[in-house]
Design brief:
7-stranded mixed sheet; 12 helices; FAD/NAD(P)-binding domain; binds flavin-adenine dinucleotide; alpha+beta; 446 residues; 6-stranded mixed sheet
Length: 446
């Protein structure tokens, strides 16, 4: 049986968060097992302006940050998320200063900062726990800011900035089709359909939107990661440092997140992706076996990890070779974050980069929608070329750093531990990629 519901749109100057005299206009969307209809994608404001309807696929970091950025610019979007709710499990992400610049630009930085410890530096150790080197972030760069942020809290904070009903859960995109006038027909798994004027694909590494645009599947990088979030009810015992332990073809790391939580990971070489394992007991056992002779802190941390936060992920990426990879947009469909440039987490930059994308895209789209000199298509192309020169080198660099750190040759590892790390490594150049001047949201209504 088909049913119908309403989507509000509002003029840029009257976002529901900021105006008590809300002036919604409503238009009908129908869904059902026999999909027939569709959202109107444009509506006329009382002042006669044209408004665009924007559909974002995926309520992850990229999707929500894009929706918030657009919302700050007075542009309403609808976010389709396949899951029934925001991802509540999962672990943490390390966000560097480029991520924080974006969170500040969209006005959620201060709220998040109060919940997560600022990390002062990093320590690199050998398998037996002996320290090889230690660094302080601010010694190299006064403006550096590093915090491990719980993914759940980040998602909830972003979602809380959006008007009610913006996120449509249990809405899994199934197919995409563009029509003659450039609008895009999105069909969901439940059979409902939506006609969108602008589509922003933020649907992560297995993006349906990206594969429709001709992107290849991401490639396995040869290593997998266990991750978890240790919980110390009486307070965690660690200094505010990222701790790295390097072995042969195996490395681990842990970093305090808050007064009671510590994020950890173990990265190990594996010729194949291996079976998908979700049983937390098996995951814990396997993780502990890998580092059974390593410092006890790590073993304790794994023991203190709640089941819902432990996971094992094969690491993948996709290199956006010029002339080979398709552009970031096709017509009025564009990609953000992992959907476009999945990268291995060796630089801790995937989410930071998705955040950067969101503000750059929102500014360009808002310019076009609000009658700037560029069309929406041109704005998306301009976003694609600006962001390609950022994302492609980062993806390659993250992969190469990963290969280097995962070396298992005993001679190479010995040179690394005796010479390269103690004598050669400098933190400044290593974190140079976190330099990103985040533009403000031009004409933000907040
Ligand atoms: C082991 C590991 C460690 C990492 N550590 C860091 C780090 O320290 N710092 C950092 O910056 N980054 C890190 N990353 C990378 C980071 O997790 C990603 O880059 C980031 O999550 C990308 O955000 P996204 O919004 O593009 O994609 P996602 O977070 O994957 O969100 C995609 C969303 O789309 C939804 N979706 C998917 N398909 C559909 C569909 N068909 N229909 C509707 N919805 C759909 C999904 O349910 C999901 O909610 C790490 C990654 C890994 C694997």
């Amino acid at each position: 049986m088909a049913m119908s519901f309403l989507l509000p749109i509002y003029p840029p100057t009257q976002s529901p968060l900021h105006s008590s005299a809300r002036s919604y206009r409503w238009f009908s969307v129908r869904t059902g097992s026999k999909p027939v209809c569709l959202a109107m994608t444009r509506a006329q404001t009382s002042g006669g302006d044209l408004e665009e309807s924007v559909v974002i696929v995926g309520a992850g970091i990229g999707g929500l940050a894009t929706a918030v950025s657009l919302h700050r610019l007075g542009i309403r979007s609808v976010v389709l998320e396949q899951a029934e709710s925001l991802r509540t499990g999962g672990t943490s992400l390390t966000l560097f200063k480029n991520g924080w610049r974006v969170l500040d630009a969209i006005s959620v930085g201060p709220q998040l900062r109060t919940q997560f410890l600022e990390i002062e530096g990093m320590v690199v150790k050998q398998e037996d726990g002996r320290e090889l080197r230690s660094f302080k972030f601010k010694d190299e760069d006064q403006s550096q800011e590093v915090r491990a942020v719980e993914r759940r809290v980040l998602l909830e904070t972003l979602a809380s900035q959006l008007p009610p009903q913006t996120i449509r859960f249990s809405s899994k995109l199934k197919t995409i089709q563009s029509n003659a006038n450039g609008d895009t027909l999105l069909e969901l798994e439940d059979g409902s359909q939506l006609l969108a004027n602008i589509v922003i694909g933020c649907d992560g590494i297995r993006s349906k939107v990206a594969s429709w645009m001709g992107f290849s599947e991401p490639k396995y990088a040869g290593h997998c990661a266990f991750r978890g979030l240790g919980f110390y009810p009486n307070g965690q015992p660690f200094q505010r440092k990222v701790n790295y332990i390097y072995g042969r073809g195996l490395r681990a790391g842990y970093v305090p997140v808050s007064a009671t939580k510590v994020y950890w990971f173990i990265c190990f070489n594996s010729p194949s992706l291996g079976p998908k394992i979700t049983d937390p007991a098996i995951l814990k056992k396997q993780a502990k076996e890998l580092v059974s002779t390593w410092p006890e802190d790590l073993q304790d941390l794994i023991d203190l990890t709640p089941d819902e936060t432990i996971s094992r992920t094969p690491l993948v990426d996709r290199w956006l070779w010029p002339g080979i990879a398709p552009p970031a947009s096709k017509g009025r469909v564009v990609l953000v974050g992992d959907a476009w440039h999945p990268m291995t987490p060796n630089l801790g930059q995937g989410a930071c980069c998705a955040l950067e994308d969101s503000v750059v895209l929102a500014n360009k789209l808002a310019g076009a929608i609000n009658g700037g000199s560029e069309s929406v298509e041109e704005a998306m192309e301009s976003y694609g070329s600006e962001r390609w020169s950022r994302a492609f080198p980062l993806t390659v660099r993250a992969n190469l750093v990963g290969s280097l750190l995962q070396w298992d040759n005993p001679l190479v590892c010995s040179v690394r531990d005796k010479f390269v790390i103690p004598k050669l490594v400098r933190l400044g150049p290593m974190l140079e990629h976190t330099n990103f001047e985040c533009e403000p949201l031009y004409g933000s209504k907040t």
